[in-house]
Description:
A hairpin with a 2-residue loop joins strand 3 and strand 4. Among the domains are: 115 residues; 39 residues. By secondary structure, it is of the alpha+beta class. The protein has 4 helices and 6 strands; from the N terminus they run H-E-E-H-E-E-E-E-H-H.
Amino acid sequence: MKPATLFSLAFVAATQIFGAHAATKTTIVPTQLPSTAPIADQLTSHGCYKSQGNLTVAKAVRSFVSSGSCWEYCKGKDYLVMGLHATSCYCGMVYPPTIDVTDDKNCNYSCPGYSKESCGSLVDGVFSIWNTGIDVIVDDMEPVETTTSAAETTTKASKSTAATEAATTVEEAPAETTTESSDSDEEKSGPNTAAIAAGSVVGVLALLAIIGAAVFFVRRRRNAEIEEEHRRNAAVNAFINGSKPPGSAGSISMTDSRLDPVMAHRRLSDGSIADNQDYSRRILRACD
Length: 288
């Protein structure tokens, strides 16, 4: 047989062997066991999660990580839950939040210690979660995002409530302040108005009283002056009348009109008057 033929046969055989080996390696797919009910003292799968929750890494388990090696460590430390992520083992007391449960096919990374077993995934920090069997009743961790959201919602609600109350107070406060200010102004303006009105009335009355008193004083003084003038005139008239003879101008005549004017003005000392004579008229006598 020629050397070329032998070389060709050897190459074909090597190619088939390498291809078969490569095909064998690619057919190994890690399996993520579905979540099952926990069993006491047994390791049971709890599914695939996209977060670790509050699980902490077990630094003592680094090489040939698998569910078996991680279980021995976490159970020995009395942890209720364990998790596998790539080449690391995690332990804890509660499951990750239920909202972080993801499809089992996302846990597709082969464990270094056992390639047919899934150790979560390198993508987005996906974890394979297990129950160690110490306690079959394990709580789920409260969702961090939900708690945060709830806290934010509560905070926002509180802020909104506070803002609403503040707005209501700010809207209502000026009205109350205005009302109180109005009442205060009314109370203040009431007494001031009354005082002003009273002062005005008192001022007017005082002015009228002053005017009345002035008029009364002027009239009284005028009357006094008139009376004084009358008294002076009377005194002067009396003096003048007393110095003139009876019957003169300015004197009061007491002569009877029936009497003879000549006889009336005669002096009483001229002679006696006969009682049986009528001297009121002249008697015509014949004279020789």
